[in-house]
Write a structure and sequence with these properties.
By secondary structure, the protein is of the alpha/beta class. 35% of the residues lie in helices and 15% in strands. Bound molecules: pyridoxal-5'-phosphate. The site of pyridoxal-5'-phosphate (PLP) has 14 residues, from helix 4 and helix 5.
C-alpha cells in the first residue's frame, strides 16, 4: 500500500448528509449572509458551549481580533508575545498601535507576567497575550496587572476553544470569560472549525456597548439607514460557514477525547527521555489538545534534523512558531529582534507533531520510532 502523507493536522468535518440538510433551506431563502438564521443559531449554540453571555461572530479569527481592538478605541502601546502566529501582532499594528514584545515562560510558552510591569509606560493601553497551544495564560496575575495600571486585557484565544478552568469549589470557568474579551478562530486547521470563522467573547454587563459596536464595525461601520459612524470593514460570517460550525459543534467533544488519547500516547512514548521536553499542563484545566508541541533540547537533539527525517517518511510536522514575530522581515526596524531570548530558544527547538482525531495510535508509534530510532 502507498505510504500516505501524514500532515500536522487535518480539518475535522461532520457527516456530509448533516451539512447538506442544514444548507438546503438556503436554496429557498436565498439569504446567504448578513447575519442570517444559521448565523444566529450558531451564535446561540456557541454562547452556551463556551459559556459566555457576549459573543459576536466573524469571517475569521484575524478580523475578529483586528475589529475587537478597533472597538475598544485604543491608542498607544500594546504589550504582547513574539511567540505566536503572525495574526496577533499584525492585528495590533494594523490598528495603528505599537506592539511591545514581552518574553514568555519557558515551561508553557505563555506570556511571562513577571516581565510585563517593566514594559508598561504612560502610553501602554492594553495587554494582548496568547493561550499558545491551548496553554492558558496566568490570568490571575495578568488581570491584577491590567487592573492596577488601567489596561485592557484582550486574549488571543485562537488555540483555546472549549477549554475550561476547573475551580476548587467544583465550578468551571470557561476560557471565554477571561480578561476583558477574547478572540477565537474557527479556521479549518483548528480544533473546531466553521471552514473559516472567528468570534469574540466578552461580558456584556461590563461592556454593554460592545455587541453593537462589533456588529457595526464588521459591517463597514454602518450604524443606521443613513449613518456610518466607524471606519469599519467587512468581517461578517456567511451562512455556509455558520452551517459548518453548527454541524461540527455536535462532534467537537468527541474529537477532543480522540486528541487526548493521541496526546497521551505521545507522552507515554517520548517522556522521560533525555533531551525531550513537553510543555507543562496544569491539572485543573480541561484542555483541547489542539497541538502537540515537543521541545528537542539542543545538546541531545537537532530539531531541524528531526523535521527533515520525518518529512522523508512522508510525515509533515511544523516548526510552529518559527521564527518569532519580532524576527519577521516586515517588522525590521519596527520591533526589537532581541530581548525575548526564551521565545527565541523555544522557537528554535520546538516541533509540533501531527495530531488530529483520526490519526491512529499506530501512526503515533511510527512517528515516535522515527524520532527515537531514526
Ligand atoms: C489561527 C490563529 C489566528 C488567526 O485566525 P484565523 O481564523 O486563521 O484568521 C490568530 N492567532 C493565532 C494564535 C492563531 O493560531
Amino acid at each position: 500500500m502507498k505510504n500516505e502523507r501524514i500532515m500536522v493536522t487535518r480539518a475535522s468535518m461532520p457527516p456530509y448528509e448533516e451539512y447538506e440538510q442544514l444548507i438546503r433551506g438556503l436554496w429557498d431563502s436565498h439569504f446567504l449572509t448578513n447575519m442570517g438564521c444559521l448565523h444566529e443559531e450558531f451564535r446561540d449554540k456557541l454562547k452556551l458551549y463556551l459559556d459566555t453571555k457576549g459573543m459576536e461572530l466573524f469571517v475569521n479569527g484575524h478580523m475578529a481580533l483586528e475589529m475587537l481592538l478597533q472597538s475598544f478605541e485604543l491608542k498607544g502601546e500594546v504589550i504582547t508575545t513574539p511567540f505566536t502566529f503572525a495574526s496577533t501582532t499584525h492585528a495590533i499594528y494594523r490598528n495603528d498601535l505599537k506592539p511591545v514584545m514581552c518574553d514568555i515562560r519557558k515551561e508553557d510558552g505563555t506570556l511571562d507576567p513577571e516581565l510585563v510591569e517593566d514594559l508598561i509606560t504612560e502610553n501602554t493601553c492594553a495587554i494582548v497575550p496568547v493561550h499558545v497551544y491551548g496553554n492558558i495564560c496566568d490570568n490571575e496575575k495578568l488581570e491584577a496587572i491590567a487592573k492596577k495600571h488601567g489596561l485592557k486585557l484582550i486574549y488571543d484565544a485562537a488555540h483555546a476553544f472549549g477549554e475550561f478552568i476547573e475551580n476548587p469549589d467544583g465550578s468551571r470557568t470557561s476560557v471565554a470569560q477571561l480578561g476583558d474579551a477574547s478572540m477565537f478562530s474557527f479556521h479549518a486547521t483548528k480544533v473546531f472549525n466553521s471552514i473559516e470563522g472567528g468570534a469574540v467573547s466578552f461580558n456584556p454587563d461590563k461592556y454593554p456597548f460592545l455587541s453593537d459596536r462589533l456588529y457595526q464595525i464588521k459591517n463597514f461601520g454602518i450604524t443606521g439607514k443613513e449613518s456610518v459612524d466607524y471606519i469599519g470593514g467587512n468581517g461578517k460570517m456567511n451562512e455556509f460557514a455558520a452551517a459548518m460550525g453548527i454541524c461540527n459543534l455536535k462532534y467537537v467533544d468527541s474529537w477532543i477525547s480522540s486528541r487526548k488519547a493521541i496526546y497521551e500516547r505521545y507522552v507515554e512514548r517520548l517522556s522521560d527521555i533525555k533531551g525531550i521536553r513537553f510543555l507543562k499542563k496544569a491539572g485543573n484545566i480541561r484542555y483541547n489538545y489542539s497541538y502537540m508541541p515537543v521541545v528537542f533540547e539542543k545538546n541531545s537533539y537537532n530539531r531541524d534534523e528531526i523535521y527533515e527525517r520525518l518529512a522523508k517518511n512522508n510525515i509533515y510536522a511544523r516548526k510552529y512558531f518559527y521564527p518569532c514575530v519580532n524576527n519577521y522581515k516586515c517588522y525590521e526596524g519596527i520591533l526589537d529582534p532581541h530581548g525575548t531570548s526564551v521565545a527565541k530558544e523555544l522557537s528554535e527547538n520546538v516541533l509540533t507533531l501531527p495530531i488530529y482525531p483520526e490519526l491512529s495510535l499506530k501512526d503515533v508509534d511510527k512517528i515516535c520510532d522515527i524520532i527515537l530510532f531514526g
